[in-house]
């Protein structure tokens, strides 16, 4: 059996200082037993922001708060304006960036992984006609949920019992 390919990553973090990026450190037992947050945050990105990556065992959801981004994934390029989100499997090649026409992209995001995540991802794609991008209603609670995850992990104690009691 061959070793997995290493993660390939190029990026430019052209973000404002008020941006947040929290790295969770779940217990190894949790990583094997349950879906878990890997990283979470809110970025206020400017025109040079981008990420080009592949081979990261993670799923990523990004929800646009303002401005717009562009996502190149699975042979498609899609604009991700306000109230739109995307969900991708980061094993696959991806390239996302601030839309040059907007010059800013404010978004909430979460990287997560674990048992069951792939099935939910497949269900999302099937329900969304195979598209990784989706427009959400004005009253969506997605940004509030991602903000809640940020507040849980901001304290730095990232164990499953702590997650369940906060």
Structural account:
With 166 residues, the protein is an alpha+beta fold. It has a single domain, classed as Jelly Rolls (Sandwich), CATH 2.60.120. Helices cover 22% and strands 42% of the residues. It contains 4 helices and 10 strands. It has helices at 28-33, 117-127, 142-154, 160-165, and strands spanning 8-12, 20-23, 36-46, 50-54, 59-73, 76-81, 84-89, 94-98, 104-113, 133-135. Strands 1, 2, 3, 4, 5, 6, 7, 8, 9 and 10 form a 10-stranded antiparallel beta sheet that branches. Strand 5 (59-73) and strand 6 (76-81) form a beta hairpin. It is globular, with a radius of gyration of 16 Å. It starts with 7 loop residues before the first strand and ends with a helix.
Rg over C-alpha atoms, rounded to the nearest angstrom: 16 Å
Broad structural category: alpha+beta
Biggest sheet record: 10 strands, antiparallel
Q: How many strands in all? A: 10
- Hey, roughly how much beta strand do the residues contain? 35-45%
Instruction: List unreliable stretches of 5+ residues.
Output: 160-166
Shape by Cα distribution: globular
- In CATH, the architecture is Sandwich
| Total of helices | 4
Helical residue percent band: 10-25%
Quick check: average pLDDT? Answer: 92
Distance between the termini: 41 Å
| CATH class value | Mainly Beta
Order of helices and strands: EEHEEEEEEEHEHH
The number of domains: 1
Q: Per CATH, what is the topology? A: Jelly Rolls
CATH superfamily label: Jelly Rolls
């Amino acid at each position: 059996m061959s070793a997995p390919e290493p993660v390939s990553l190029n990026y430019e973090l052209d973000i404002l200082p008020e941006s947040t990026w929290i790295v969770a450190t779940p217990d190894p037992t949790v990583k094997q037993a349950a879906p878990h947050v890997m990283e979470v945050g809110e970025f206020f990105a400017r025109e040079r922001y981008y990420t080009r990556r592949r081979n990261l065992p993670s799923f990523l959801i990004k929800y646009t708060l303002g401005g717009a981004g562009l996502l190149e994934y699975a042979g498609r390029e899609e604009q991700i304006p306000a109230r739109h989100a995307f969900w991708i499997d980061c094993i696959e090649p991806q390239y996302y960036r601030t839309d040059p026409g907007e010059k800013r992209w404010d978004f909430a995001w979460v990287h997560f992984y674990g048992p069951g995540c792939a099935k939910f991802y497949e269900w999302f794609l099937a329900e969304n006609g195979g598209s990784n991008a989706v427009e959400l209603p004005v009253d969506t609670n997605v940004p509030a949920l991602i903000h809640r995850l940020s507040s849980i992990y901001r304290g730095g104690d990232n164990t499953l019992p702590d997650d369940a009691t906060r």
